[in-house]
Amino acid sequence: MDFSSPDLFSTSPILALTALALVVLFLKALLKRGEDVIFGVTLIGIVICISLAVATYGRAGTAFQGMIQVGGFTNFFYLVFMVATGLTVLISRSYLQREEINFGEYYCMLLFAASGMMLIAAAQDLIIIFLGIELMSISLYVLAGFMRKRQKSNESALKYFLLGAFATGFLLYGIALLYGVSGSTRFVVIAENFPALTADPVFWIGVGLVMVGFSFKVAAVPFHMWVPDVYEGAPTTVSAFMSTGGKAAAFSGFVLVFFHAFQVGNSKITDVLAVLSAATMIIGNVIAISQQNLKRMLAYSSIAHAGYMLAGLAAGNGLGQTGIMYYLAAYTFMNVGSFGVLSVLEEQEEKNLTFDDYAGLGYKRPLIAAIMSIFMFSLSGIPPFAGFFGKYYVFAAAVKANLTWLAVVGVLTSAISAYYYLRLVVYMYFRESESAVTTEISRPSLAALVISAIGVIGLGILPSLVLDLTQGLF
């Protein structure tokens, strides 16, 4: 394979991030107590990767003989992953120290997971998709069980690993069937032969198995059962990263495979995705109502939001793709911020994680309560916050694709979600509590929360900031 200079420069963001992960690994091996140094190097490296992603954004095309996509769509997701990773790093430092798990390997695993995410978004071949998913997943399995002395953390890692490996088996077998039928794993080749391939039942079996694999990664019903247990047991900062970066990576792969290879807008796949979307929205929102633990509530909320984005995928049009990309950018700020608030207030032995623990927070910590309220309003889809426009674009795409019933389901379930989101706001401002919140909030964590809140408000007031980046990509 010819490794040309243009190819290396076009893929520099992912190469730089992988190199950063290796540098952090070596620093951990060389420095006995170098967590502060690793923290600083990680942040500087992420800023460099963001700069490279911006610099190569306009270089639309492919690299390495068509295996890797560069510029445009890919770089948009690079930016989403880097923002999610950077914010997670900021909220992690004080959390790791408080939970007595401040080890350099944590940052290394975050970076390797982000490298896998970038590989998924850059794929033009099913094998590259598989490699990216495995790199991301294995790193997240380790991070989910990072609290080795806590039983819930060990259980979450084991459950995530077993179910994730099972879902990967579906994905890989589906890829094998698609290769057997089409003779290639390249998106371009499958798309060119799509009309002829649809006559073969084995092709549809392969498509179904690939859909199962991606549905597990995005937490779509009925492949969602791992989410609440894993999010509850994993370190809160890891839950923030999984629910944003991990979900964005899975959806980037979903979009690439089903739009570029399977022509979702012109096939029977649309009906299946629409049913998955409706079921995910309904079950995620209904079950979230009964949750008392805030991490589990946000986990079911994450399932529901996957359903909203699946509506854009089922629509199979350009507006649907744009809607998904905007939604993921907004969702990254909303969910990192929400889990970030939980992480800064959480105390050892999983204290301060229920609705009752947040009673009266508006008087004890007015700034934190105000920031959390912004995230709850945005998640529930109240204008002018970013969450409203995210839902608007994916539902508008569904209506444009003659899936009006799906948009109606989305609006109704979104109304249901307002109950459990605004319930937290009611607890913070209209309930009294005798317990005091004693956790100190570090400057990096506060900076991450403020950046997230600004992102939610900014994307809500000026949605064109994202929409302009997606113009001409489809």
Summary tags:
474 residues; mainly alpha; 2 strands; 1% strand; globular
Account of the 3D structure:
- The protein is mainly α and 474 residues long.
- The protein has a domain at 266-474.
- 76% of the residues lie in helices and 1% in strands.
- It has 21 helices and two strands.
- A two-stranded antiparallel sheet has the order 1-2.
- Strand 1 and strand 2 (68-70) form a beta hairpin.
- Helix 12 (236-261) packs parallel to helix 14 (294-315) and helix 13 (269-288) packs antiparallel against helix 14.
- The two termini are 29 Å apart.
- The model has no long low-confidence stretch (mean pLDDT 88).
Brief account:
The protein has 474 residues and is mostly helical.
Low-confidence stretches: none
Helix content range:
over 70%
Mean pLDDT: 88
How many beta-strand runs?
Answer: 2
Largest sheet: 2 strands, antiparallel
Structural class: mainly alpha
Specify Rg, calculated over alpha carbons: 21 Å
Name the overall outline: globular
Beta fraction of the residues?
A: under 5%
Query: Helix tally?
Result: 21
Q: Secondary-structure element order, as H and E?
A: HHHEEHHHHHHHHHHHHHHHHHH
The order of strands across the largest sheet is: 1-2
Distance between the termini: 29 Å
Topology of this protein?
Blueprint: H1 5-10, H2 12-30, H3 35-55, E1 61-63, E2 68-70, H4 73-98, H5 105-122, H6 126-144, H7 151-182, H8 187-192, H9 194-197, H10 201-218, H11 226-233, H12 236-261, H13 269-288, H14 294-315, H15 318-345, H16 361-364, H17 366-380, H18 386-400, H19 404-430, H20 443-461, H21 464-470
Antiparallel strand pairs: 1-2
Helix pairs in contact: 2-3, 2-5, 3-4, 4-5, 4-12, 4-15, 4-20, 5-6, 5-12, 6-7, 6-12, 7-10, 7-11, 10-12, 11-12, 11-14, 12-14, 12-15, 13-14, 13-19, 14-15, 14-18, 14-19, 15-17, 15-18, 15-20, 17-19, 17-20, 18-19, 18-20
